[in-house]
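WARN retry 2 of 3 for item q-0093 after timeout on previous attempt; input resubmitted unchanged.
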Amino acid sequence: MEPDEFLKIQQKKEEIGRAAELRIIEYERERLCQLPDLAKNIVHTADRDVTAGYDIKSFETRSNEDGNSISRFIEVKAVSLLDYRFYWTRNEIEKSKYYQDKYFLYLLPIAKKTNLILECF
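OK item q-0093 returned
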Protein backbone atom coordinates (compact mmCIF):
# COMPACT_ATOMS: atom_id res chain seq x y z
CA MET A 1 0.00 0.00 0.00
CA GLU A 2 1.31 3.41 -0.90
CA PRO A 3 1.63 6.06 1.84
CA ASP A 4 -0.96 8.34 0.17
CA GLU A 5 -3.49 5.52 0.02
CA PHE A 6 -2.86 4.67 3.68
CA LEU A 7 -3.33 8.32 4.69
CA LYS A 8 -6.64 8.49 2.80
CA ILE A 9 -7.89 5.37 4.57
CA GLN A 10 -6.86 6.74 7.97
CA GLN A 11 -8.49 10.09 7.23
CA LYS A 12 -11.73 8.36 6.21
CA LYS A 13 -11.71 6.30 9.43
CA GLU A 14 -11.25 9.48 11.47
CA GLU A 15 -14.13 11.17 9.62
CA ILE A 16 -16.42 8.21 10.25
CA GLY A 17 -15.35 8.04 13.90
CA ARG A 18 -16.00 11.73 14.44
CA ALA A 19 -19.41 11.48 12.75
CA ALA A 20 -20.26 8.56 15.06
CA GLU A 21 -19.20 10.59 18.11
CA LEU A 22 -21.36 13.53 17.01
CA ARG A 23 -24.33 11.20 16.50
CA ILE A 24 -23.89 9.82 20.02
CA ILE A 25 -23.68 13.34 21.46
CA GLU A 26 -26.98 14.05 19.71
CA TYR A 27 -28.42 10.83 21.16
CA GLU A 28 -27.21 11.74 24.66
CA ARG A 29 -28.81 15.18 24.41
CA GLU A 30 -32.08 13.53 23.39
CA ARG A 31 -31.76 11.02 26.25
CA LEU A 32 -31.23 13.86 28.74
CA CYS A 33 -33.83 16.22 27.26
CA GLN A 34 -35.81 16.19 30.53
CA LEU A 35 -32.65 17.32 32.34
CA PRO A 36 -31.47 20.33 30.29
CA ASP A 37 -28.80 21.37 32.81
CA LEU A 38 -27.11 18.01 32.32
CA ALA A 39 -27.69 17.89 28.55
CA LYS A 40 -25.92 21.22 28.05
CA ASN A 41 -22.89 19.97 30.02
CA ILE A 42 -22.13 16.98 27.80
CA VAL A 43 -18.46 17.18 26.78
CA HIS A 44 -16.95 15.94 23.51
CA THR A 45 -13.79 14.83 25.28
CA ALA A 46 -12.17 13.44 22.13
CA ASP A 47 -11.95 17.01 20.78
CA ARG A 48 -9.96 18.08 23.83
CA ASP A 49 -7.93 15.07 24.90
CA VAL A 50 -7.27 12.06 22.67
CA THR A 51 -5.58 10.26 25.59
CA ALA A 52 -8.65 10.33 27.87
CA GLY A 53 -9.67 6.75 27.03
CA TYR A 54 -13.24 7.78 26.22
CA ASP A 55 -14.84 10.10 23.68
CA ILE A 56 -17.76 11.72 25.48
CA LYS A 57 -18.56 12.64 29.06
CA SER A 58 -22.29 12.56 29.68
CA PHE A 59 -24.50 11.90 32.68
CA GLU A 60 -26.93 9.42 34.16
CA THR A 61 -30.58 10.40 34.54
CA ARG A 62 -30.36 9.59 38.25
CA SER A 63 -28.29 11.23 40.97
CA ASN A 64 -26.14 9.62 43.64
CA GLU A 65 -27.22 9.51 47.29
CA ASP A 66 -25.73 13.00 47.83
CA GLY A 67 -27.88 14.42 45.04
CA ASN A 68 -24.91 14.94 42.70
CA SER A 69 -25.05 13.98 39.05
CA ILE A 70 -23.38 10.72 38.04
CA SER A 71 -20.96 10.91 35.13
CA ARG A 72 -21.12 8.56 32.16
CA PHE A 73 -17.86 8.03 30.23
CA ILE A 74 -18.62 6.92 26.68
CA GLU A 75 -16.30 5.33 24.14
CA VAL A 76 -17.83 5.32 20.64
CA LYS A 77 -16.95 2.77 17.99
CA ALA A 78 -18.28 2.91 14.44
CA VAL A 79 -18.65 -0.72 13.38
CA SER A 80 -19.49 -2.66 10.26
CA LEU A 81 -22.94 -4.19 9.99
CA LEU A 82 -21.31 -7.42 8.88
CA ASP A 83 -19.22 -8.27 11.90
CA TYR A 84 -19.30 -5.49 14.54
CA ARG A 85 -15.53 -5.83 15.05
CA PHE A 86 -13.62 -2.88 16.44
CA TYR A 87 -10.24 -2.00 17.87
CA TRP A 88 -10.14 -1.23 21.58
CA THR A 89 -6.90 0.35 22.77
CA ARG A 90 -5.12 -0.67 25.94
CA ASN A 91 -5.84 2.82 27.33
CA GLU A 92 -9.57 2.46 26.60
CA ILE A 93 -9.60 -0.94 28.33
CA GLU A 94 -7.76 0.50 31.36
CA LYS A 95 -10.22 3.40 31.58
CA SER A 96 -13.14 0.96 31.39
CA LYS A 97 -11.68 -0.87 34.39
CA TYR A 98 -11.08 2.40 36.24
CA TYR A 99 -14.56 3.85 35.64
CA GLN A 100 -16.30 0.45 35.85
CA ASP A 101 -20.09 0.88 35.74
CA LYS A 102 -19.70 4.51 34.68
CA TYR A 103 -17.93 3.48 31.45
CA PHE A 104 -20.07 2.76 28.39
CA LEU A 105 -19.05 1.33 25.04
CA TYR A 106 -21.42 2.43 22.27
CA LEU A 107 -21.20 0.48 19.01
CA LEU A 108 -22.72 2.43 16.15
CA PRO A 109 -23.23 0.48 12.91
CA ILE A 110 -22.34 2.10 9.61
CA ALA A 111 -23.36 1.21 6.07
CA LYS A 112 -20.06 0.26 4.42
CA LYS A 113 -20.94 1.21 0.85
CA THR A 114 -22.01 4.73 1.68
CA ASN A 115 -20.27 5.22 5.02
CA LEU A 116 -23.57 6.46 6.39
CA ILE A 117 -24.15 6.10 10.07
CA LEU A 118 -27.39 4.23 10.61
CA GLU A 119 -30.14 5.63 12.72
CA CYS A 120 -30.39 2.94 15.35
CA PHE A 121 -32.08 4.65 18.27
